[in-house]
Structures are given as structure tokens and as C-alpha cells.
Amino acid sequence: MSLPPLAPYPALRLRRLRQADWIRRLVRESVLTPADLIWSMVVHEGEGEVPVASMPGFSRLSVKQCAAAAVEARKLGVPAIAIFPHIDGAKKDAAGSLAADPNGLISQAVKAMKDAAPEVGIMCDVALDPFTDHGHDGIIENGQIANDATIERLVEQALVQARAGCDILAPSDMMDGRCAALRTALEAEGLQDAMIMSYAAKYASAFYGPYRDAIGSGKLGTAGPADKKTYQMDPANTEEALREVALDIAEGADMVMVKPGMPYLDIVSRVVEAFDMPTFAFQVSGEYAMIMAAAQNGWIDEERAILESLGAFKRAGAAGIITYFAPRAARMLGG
Length: 335
What we know:
CATH superfamily: Aldolase class I
CATH class: Alpha Beta
Distance between the termini: 58 Å
Number of helices: 11
Radius of gyration: 22 Å
Helix content: 25-40%
CATH topology: TIM Barrel
CATH architecture: Alpha-Beta Barrel
Number of strands: 12
Oligomer: single chain
Order of helices and strands: HEEEHEHEEEHEHEHHEHEHHEH
């Protein structure tokens, strides 16, 4: 019995690998887990939670609550927490003096979290904007952000954080040469195990607005000769991002970051491909706020949107994501 002649090519039906959940899971190319998340939170000096109006569902936490959050992170399988401070405006000054206070809010929070859950990594922002009365990430001299004077203060801040128990120092200031200065100072102080995750490609973005509400800097630092655009990157640029990343790696950064996240997935992908370096993305406050606002209006499915947005970073090649959604996402993922 002869067989019928073969078709010139087999039927191309890509839907065969989508027909059931089990096969979709089996052939999935990128997988998001709680271990991919860094929980972004804001600590304040008072007691209890303080809701942030522009970030629905998000609140500033007290030091005590941050310690409890560290325990929760451990339970959920979230490996690290990124902590940011809300400082009373009356305590701020032009030099951001409180950034280098060894008994300041960040030091208190780091110590409390490390006492509560030492297995959870703690990441601290190295920048002056939460502490300055003008809202900039640096020292202003003659109407401009002074690069080298700012680095001196950042080194003081970073050493205080490292001594308090911070595991990852994350300079977000975008001053030239700051990674080399931080690494040199850490080595000299015997703090060589402190890691640096550089905000290597941080763009002058419109998506930071809700965060500025969260830390109490409002709309400061967004206009005038010392505009943040003079030190944060132009959103139109890609090649410049690669040069920034290359410099920070050469200066001793252990990991690099792209910020914001979703609008810059192309940058994440290019950095990963170019450097084969642990690369993280920050899903910033504006991204969080847009998802939450749309979900509260019934325009999108909240949980699906959260996981889809986070999965996009993994698909782009990110090693992990800093996100305000970390505890919710971890619970949805079975953490």
C-alpha cells in the first residue's frame, strides 16, 4: 500500500503550543519569580502608615513597620528591599546635611531591618534629593549642580549607610566619577564587601512625580539653571546610556540599573546584550501609579497588568526589578 504524497511543507500552526496551560508553562521563554524582585519602600520618622495620594495603595512606613516588612520579604522569598527616606521639610538644608547623619532615619531603618531579618538584602539610595531643601541630587554652587562637591557628600552618605549594615549602595545622583569615588572610599574603610548597584542610565523622566510626593520633594529641582536635565540623561539617547554603563562598570560597579523601566525596555535589552552584566530595571512610581489608577477605574485587570509589566523586564533580559509591587507580585507568584 503506497502512502499519499507528502505536502510540500508541514502545516505551520503555532497555536499548538498555546492550547493548554501546561504546554504554555512548559515552553515559556522567560519566567518571573519572587527572587527577581526588590521591594521599593519609603520610611518616615513618625508612627504608623502614611498613605501617598498619588500612589494608590502605597504608604510610607515607620521604622518599626519597615522591620516587619523585612520579615515579610523573607517569608515571601523577596531577596532584597530598597529603602528611601521621607524627611521633615523643616530639617532639610541646601547641603543635604542629614544624608550623612550616622543616627539618621535611614541608618535606623537599616539597622532595624537587619536585626529583624538579616537574610534580606538592603539597598540604599545614594543621593541628596530627599535631604535638600531645593530637591536636587547635589550641591548647588553658582546656580549649577557642582559635580565634585556633590561626590564628597555622597561618599560621606554612602559610608554611613554601609556602616549601618546596608548591603547595596545605589548611587542615583548621576554625577560623573561617583562610582570610582565610592569604591575607593569603601575599600579604604574596610567595607569592601558593600556592593554598588549604579543607576547607570537614569533618565530625566516625567515618570518620577509620585515618588517625589512620597519623599516630600514635590516639584522641586525641575526648573532653572540647575534643572535635573543637566545631570540626568536625555530620554532621546541610547548610545549615551551605553557609555554611562561602561564608565560605571570600569569604576567598580557590581551591578547596573536602568531607570525608568517600562519606557526604556530597549535600553535594558541593549545594556544586557552589550555588557553581560547583572542589569536591573526600576519600575518607577509613575508606572505604578498609572497601573493602579487604570485598575481602580476598571479599565484594566490589575493583577494581570502587574505581572505582565514585571514579566516584560525579564523578557528584556533584566536580572531583577525594583518595584513597589514586590510584595503583591510575590504573593500572586506563590511566594
